[in-house]
C-alpha cells in the first residue's frame, strides 16, 4: 500500500507564506491556464491521431487517462510540498487536469451501454479504473524514487578527490 506523502501545513496560503502563494494569485492562475492550454492541445492531438469509434473502446480516452494518472503520480511523488504553489498547480490542475478526462469516459460508457453494448461499456470503465489506479500508484512510487536522495559513491583509490584530500597532509 502506498502511504500518502506528508504535507507541510505551512505550504501555500497559510500564515507567513510568501506573497503570491495563494491559489487565486495571478502567478498560480497563469500557470494553470498555460498548463491547461498545453494539456488540452496534447489531448486533442491524441484524439486526432487515435479517434474513438462510436461503438468501440475509447482507446484515446483510455490512453490519456492512464498516461495522465501515471504522470500525475510521478509529479505527486517527486514534487515536494515546498515546491512553489504555481508550479504544482500548473502541472497538476493545469497540464494533467486538462489532459485527462473523466467526462469523455463517462459519455463513451453511456453511449456504449445505450447502444446495447453493456460488456464493452463495463470493460471500458473497468480498464480505465484499474489501469488508471495502477498507473497512479506506480507513478507515485517512481516519483518518490526520482526524488529520493542518492547515496554518494565511494571514491576510487587514486581518484582526484583522494589526491586533493592527501594534498594538505603532504604540505604539513
UniProtKB/TrEMBL annotation:
Residues at which Na(+) binds: 97, 100
Coiled-coil stretches: none
The keyword ATP-binding appears for this protein: no
Assigned keywords, A-Z: Cell membrane, Ion channel, Ion transport, Membrane, Metal-binding, Sodium, Transmembrane, Transmembrane helix, Transport
GO molecular function, one term: metal ion binding
Gene Ontology terms: biological process: cellular detoxification of fluoride
Modulation of this protein's activity: Na(+) is not transported, but it plays an essential structural role and its presence is essential for fluoride channel function.
Cell location: Cell membrane
Residue ranges of the region described as Disordered: 1-23, 150-172
GO cellular component terms listed in the entry, alphabetical order: plasma membrane
Topology class, membrane: Multi-pass membrane protein
Reaction equation(s) it catalyzes: fluoride(in) = fluoride(out)
Membrane-spanning ranges: 28-46, 58-79, 91-113, 119-142
Family, per entry: Belongs to the fluoride channel Fluc/FEX (TC 1.A.43) family.
Biological role stated in the UniProt entry: Fluoride-specific ion channel. Important for reducing fluoride concentration in the cell, thus reducing its toxicity.
Protein name: Fluoride-specific ion channel FluC
Organism: Microcella daejeonensis
Gene name in the database record: fluC
Amino acid at each position: 500500500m502506498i502511504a500518502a506523502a506528508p504535507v507541510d501545513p505551512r505550504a501555500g496560503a497559510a500564515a507567513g507564506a510568501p506573497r503570491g502563494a495563494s491559489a487565486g494569485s495571478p502567478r498560480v492562475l497563469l500557470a494553470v491556464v498555460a498548463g491547461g492550454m498545453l494539456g488540452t492541445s496534447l489531448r486533442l492531438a491524441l484524439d486526432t491521431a487515435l479517434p474513438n469509434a462510436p461503438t468501440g473502446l475509447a482507446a484515446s480516452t483510455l490512453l490519456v487517462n492512464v498516461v495522465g494518472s501515471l504522470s500525475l503520480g510521478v509529479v505527486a511523488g517527486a514534487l515536494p510540498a515546498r515546491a512553489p504553489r504555481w508550479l504544482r498547480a500548473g502541472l497538476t490542475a493545469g497540464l494533467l487536469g486538462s489532459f485527462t478526462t473523466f467526462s469523455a469516459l463517462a459519455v463513451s460508457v453511456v453511449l456504449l451501454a445505450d447502444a446495447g453494448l453493456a460488456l464493452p461499456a463495463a470493460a471500458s470503465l473497468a480498464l480505465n479504473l484499474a489501469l488508471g489506479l495502477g498507473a497512479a500508484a506506480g507513478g507515485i512510487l517512481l516519483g518518490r524514487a526520482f526524488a529520493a536522495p542518492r547515496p554518494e559513491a565511494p571514491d576510487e583509490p587514486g581518484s582526484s578527490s583522494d589526491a586533493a584530500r592527501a594534498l594538505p597532509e603532504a604540505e604539513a
